[in-house]
Backbone:
């Protein structure tokens, strides 16, 4: 979208509709889920964006209409991450990455051990729920 079009509520609504139509088939399962939740309340979502609200404030505002929208979490992208990038993540995030992959890190106490396990299980990374 053009920066000037962001102020127009109808254009924002149309852009959301086009994106969620998924004509090219590039939407992930999580993006489809968000589109499913947003579709009935497009106007309620487009209005605050057209006024320049931040996504966090929009999320808090539309939670009243549908609380599931803001609970959809996207996994941390770990493909092509180097060890120095993984070391910036918290242990909680590293544990979440491992649990999404269905891997337990038994005996892991130090952050370095979690980082090594994330790197060792890189082949298990996927885009499923």
Residues:
């Amino acid at each position: 979208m053009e920066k000037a079009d962001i102020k127009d509520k109808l254009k924002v609504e149309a852009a959301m509709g086009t994106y969620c139509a998924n004509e090219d088939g590039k939407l992930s399962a999580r993006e489809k889920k968000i589109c499913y939740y947003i579709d009935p309340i497009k106007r309620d979502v487009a209005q605050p964006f057209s006024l320049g609200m931040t996504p966090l404030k929009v999320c808090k505002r539309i939670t009243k209409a549908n609380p599931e929208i803001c609970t959809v979490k996207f996994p941390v992208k770990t493909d092509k991450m180097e060890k120095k990038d993984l070391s910036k993540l918290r242990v909680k995030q590293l544990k979440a990455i491992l649990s999404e992959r269905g891997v337990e890190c038994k005996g892991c106490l130090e952050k370095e051990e979690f980082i090594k396990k994330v790197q060792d299980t890189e082949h298990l990374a996927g885009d499923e729920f």
